[in-house]
Amino acid sequence: MPRCLVIDDVVALRRDLHAHPELAFEEKRTTDLIVDQLLHLGLLPQVLPGGTGVICDIGTTGRMIALRADIDALPINDLKDVAYRSRVDGVCHGCGHDAHTAILLAAAAELVRVEVPGRIRLIFQPAEESLPGGAVSVVAAGALDGVEQIFALHCDPRLETGLIGARIGPITAACDQVEVVVSGPGGHTARPHLTVDVVYAMGRLITELPGLLSRHVDPRAALSLVWGAVDAGRAVNAIPMSGRLRGTLRVFDRNAWDAAEPLVRTLVDQVMAPSGARAETTYQRGVPPVINDPTAVAVQRAAVVSALGPAALAETEQSMGGEDFAWYLDSVPGALARLGVRRPGAAPFDLHQGTFDIDEDALTVGVRYTVALARAALARTVE
Fold this sequence. Notes:
alpha/beta; Alpha-Beta Plaits; eight-stranded mixed sheet; disordered N terminus; Aminopeptidase; four-stranded antiparallel sheet
């Protein structure tokens, strides 16, 4: 593909990224590609301290807004039969970060050609798919210094191509990981009364902990604990000495998220107590909910109407998915929007699947919106 990016290259760029996915904090090739393209636009990109991810400013004076794209991929197999299928075994762009990166680079190519009343900071962020997310290290590196507002765009296969979804307030959920290791002395299944039945104790925890949480947390917080992995024993006639449960806890409300960890630990101990089993709980805090600022959403909506027309503006629901863009919003106001990537009339599909792909017509939609968003945001801040 050409070294010097122009907007017509956005499809080729996205396909190149899709074919060469990289996991969290391993995005070396992706970072080099981003730097190369920005240098050919006459810009001065800076690689983040960890060696992956890039920040780069357009303009030198005036107020500043930021545009963020995540760049990492997922540890899943690419199951598609396309020319740009992943060439890396077990790694796939199954969440659209290749599209996010290509859109922001193509938007940068347009923005350097027009006069903007201020500065635009481009943030190409590593490790969104990790916990607590690469955004934490990006903020720590000073990427938000001087930034007044920040915006991001995420692929959404629930929306048809041509639509941009916007929402005031919470748009994603908080997401944490929970692991409980249950242990006992083990024994023969013929004599469970002489030992601690670890499998029975795990069964109680699997069913009772989600239910108890629903009775200790305001239902409006929509807290949900779902187990995704259960492992215990190998022999049918032996009670194992240990077993492990792993799952995710998701919740809409920030206050409920802050209180979730101590509550989970307490309830695990209470459920385990009658069984005599020991339980060791590992609770990994993930990301808080993304809460969109009303003023930033107003800018998003104005940009959609300006670039694509009023019919392109869609309302969008709060998702139970997590997004580390929330960490930026702890420091500056901003908003996340959703980009429709499903071809009109196509069957519904979801993110994080090995078959995930986008309608590439959505790329141009994303570029037009992003350029209009940057201009609208800077015009708003100087009023």
